[in-house]
Fold this sequence. Notes:
Residues 231-313 are annotated as: Disordered. The chain is an alpha/beta fold.
Amino acid sequence: MFYDLNVPYGSNDLEISSTLSFLAELGYATIALSQTLSGKLPPNLTPPPIPTNVPKNLTLLTRVNLTLSDPTQNQRLTTLAQAYDLVAIRPANEKALLSACTNLECDVISLDLTVRLPYHFKFKMLSAAIARGIRFEICYGPGVTGSGTDARRNLIGNAMSLIRATRGRGIIVSSEARKALGVRAPWDVINLACVWGLSQERGKEAVCEEARKVTALAKLKRTSWRGIIDVIDGGEKPKPKLDNSGPKPKSATSKQKSTLPPSESNSDSLKRKASVEETEKPLSKREMKRRAKKARMGVVEGEDSAGVTPANS
């Protein structure tokens, strides 16, 4: 299953149906429709309605991209996590990136790699995010759809630096394409990741396994306590049974017992007695010797009494 976890979408987007149909034809199975927020968050955080005429083999998720320049803007991340399926943070500076890697509760860190970054990626900082289950996203759409040579050059250089700093782990690749022309097939994306420095195996994981882990962990965070304990059964009280005070019908077995003739009932009692006798304890050796001795004494006494003759005969 191939994933594309960043497809921009708005409520007035007219080309989203054709983009989703083209993604389904290319072989993608799960698509995340993203909405970008920056600055002060609105009071009502609700994702836009899901578009109609969606292919049946597509699974649609909702995602929010939060542009973060000040790390103190994290009071409502829990609210975002309850309203959207995925929460992605796009840090604008190194301080925001450090806070997202170590403290903030998010699912994806999406970096704008088409601009020249004023800082370098550090392995210790990025590995802390990967250990927490957060993945780094590389979006190829802005560098492919005619954004200029500078954007394409910056995308290649920043992607290589990110892959080198993360040792090729915890990377997902998404399109961020606003039109169907900016979307590429999954194996083309894997070849593009090989150009950036990923192996073919790691490139396939970036659009399959790593993306699946992001969605699974995000769902587990929403439905469980800190992603550790999930309540399966709430322990509801059973409903009280209805008390039928009317006469209880006799069972079929009781009728059969009552209709049995006395001979059969006596045979059943004899069988039960025989089974009880069979279950008696076996005689001990001492008891067997005592009974044998008593039997011999009885035989001797009988012989003596038979050998005595009357005197008058």
